[in-house]
Specification:
Blueprint lengths: L11 E5 L5 H10 L9 E6 L2 E7 L5 E3 L6 H27 L10
Antiparallel strand pairs: 1-2, 2-3, 3-4
């Protein structure tokens, strides 16, 4: 017996949400009985469906309660951690680096 998986889309994309995602995100938030988080969002998309999202600033999550999203949320949290950690490192470096053209006077 063979299993045909040609019609089963297993693709996963984690990306920043765009304006084109607004309706899908509002529907997702409604299915999850939550408010749409504010600010920049990362979405987990399988096939053509946004299944979960996380806010970069607040880490608020919305997810499809009718789809297994535990692993998607874990991946979104990991990616958020990478992005916010890189942002913090850039701020620390910028704080230690003198501005170009500015000389300390003594």
């Amino acid at each position: 017996m063979s299993t045909n998986t040609d019609n089963f889309d297993t693709s996963l994309v984690i990306r920043e949400a765009t304006d084109a995602d607004r309706d899908a995100l509002l529907a997702l938030a409604q299915r999850d009985s939550r408010d749409l988080p504010s600010g920049l969002l990362l979405v987990a998309e399988t096939g053509d469906e946004v299944r979960a999202a996380i806010a970069l600033d607040s880490a608020s999550v919305i997810a499809d309660p009718f789809y297994p999203t535990t692993e998607l949320i874990a991946l979104l949290r990991a990616r958020r951690s990478q992005l916010t950690g890189a942002r913090r490192r850039r701020r620390r470096i910028a704080a230690r680096t003198p501005l170009a053209g500015v000389r300390a006077t003594g």
